[in-house]
Structures are given as C-alpha cells and as structure tokens.
C-alpha cells in the first residue's frame, strides 16, 4: 500500500491577486500538506508546481503512501490538462487521483469526501473529468458556503474570505488536510465516517 503512488491536486487560480480567494482553498490545503511533510514545490513541465512526499502514518508507525502534491499553474477552468499530464507522467490511475477543491454547496468550515459523481457546476472539476475521461477520482470538498443575497456564485468564489471566516480558515484547511491524509491511510469510508458526522462545537 505504501508504494502505490497518489496524485493529490489542489485547485486554484494562479497569481497573487487570487491567492486569498475562496476558489483557491485547494492551493491553501496543499500548502498545509507540504508544510507537514517539509516538501517544497518546484515547477513541473505539466504546468503545475509539484512536490513529492509521503503523507500520513500507517498502523505501526509506518510512513504513509508516496504522493505527488500538485498545484496546477493554469486557471481553474483549464485544470484538466495539468492533472491528466501529471497522471500520465507519474503513471497514476484515476482512482489514485485526489482533488481538493472549494465547494459552495457545503457550509463554510465543513469538509466532505467522495469518489466519482457529478461536478456540481465546478468548472475545474468539469475540465478534469473531461481530460481524465472519467469521473472516478477522489474529491475532498472544502465548504466555502453559498453566496449571500443575490451575489453570483462566480463573484463569491473569486472574493477573499471575510474577516470572520479568516479566523476560522485554519481549522478548515487543517480538516481538509486531515481528510486527505485519512483517505490515503485508512480509506474513503473512514474519512467519510469522521468528517460527515455532526460536529460538536464549531
């Protein structure tokens, strides 16, 4: 199990003007995962910043699976090319591709995990599905909440988190990073059992 490579992708848009947007929460989670492992990102020819590491710990203290952490350097709606290119380069099957992304249909601060299914109007996922030729990849969905009032969804996800949300953002990023590690070390069902359960407190 530890020798089966995973491709873990965090979605977002390139450039400092987008760095704090809700749409870039996938990039933020990847930065947390890289920080936990001491891995450093470098530019890859597949139009992405990548870092290789092992994530999590298996029973008995065995280091978790080998992973390629990747942040596509294209815009969100063209994420599929880099993801498919990396999957081909590193010879990773779609069922070992895990995509971390923002999700407006989940309340801010919540994390959900799934494999396959629809893209829910998410342009990054739609392009990945098209490029991989399948929906059967794993997703860690970081809730950013619905837009307030009559605000368009596109405007909502391309705005920075609010002041109150920024105070809670580290918890969301840690939970999404924990969910990613748990999927890789204990499986999707275990992660769903933990992160889909009603939460006490926050």
TrEMBL record:
Single GO molecular function: peptidyl-tRNA hydrolase activity
Catalytic activity as recorded in UniProt: an N-acyl-L-alpha-aminoacyl-tRNA + H2O = an N-acyl-L-amino acid + a tRNA + H(+)
GO biological process, one term: protein quality control for misfolded or incompletely synthesized proteins
Gene Ontology CC entries for this record: cytoplasm
CDD domains attached to this UniProt entry: PTH
Family listed: Belongs to the PTH family.
HAMAP family on file: Pept_tRNA_hydro_bact (MF_00083)
Biological role: Catalyzes the release of premature peptidyl moieties from peptidyl-tRNA molecules trapped in stalled 50S ribosomal subunits, and thus maintains levels of free tRNAs and 50S ribosomes. Hydrolyzes ribosome-free peptidyl-tRNAs (with 1 or more amino acids incorporated), which drop off the ribosome during protein synthesis, or as a result of ribosome stalling.
Protein name: Peptidyl-tRNA hydrolase
Organism: Sanguibacter suaedae
Gene this chain is encoded by: pth
């Amino acid at each position: 199990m530890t020798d089966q490579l995973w491709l873990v992708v965090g979605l977002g848009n390139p450039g400092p003007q987008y760095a704090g947007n809700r749409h870039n929460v996938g990039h933020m989670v990847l930065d947390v995962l890289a920080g936990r492992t001491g891995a450093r990102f470098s530019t890859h020819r597949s139009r992405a910043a990548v870092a290789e590491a092992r994530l999590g710990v298996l029973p008995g203290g065995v280091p978790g699976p080998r992973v390629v952490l990747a942040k596509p350097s294209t815009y969100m709606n063209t994420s599929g090319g880099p993801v498919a290119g990396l999957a081909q380069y590193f010879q990773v099957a779609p069922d070992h591709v895990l995509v971390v992304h923002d999700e407006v249909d989940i309340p801010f601060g919540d994390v959900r995990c799934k494999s396959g299914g629809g893209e829910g109007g998410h342009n990054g996922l739609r392009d990945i599905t098209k490029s991989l030729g399948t929906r059967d990849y794993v997703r860690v969905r970081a809730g950013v909440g619905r837009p307030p009032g009559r605000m368009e969804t596109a405007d909502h996800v391309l705005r920075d988190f609010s002041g109150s949300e920024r105070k809670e953002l580290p918890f969301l990023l840690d939970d999404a990073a924990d969910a990613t590690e748990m999927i890789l070390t204990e499986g999707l069902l275990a992660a769903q059992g933990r992160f889909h359960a009603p939460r006490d407190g926050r």
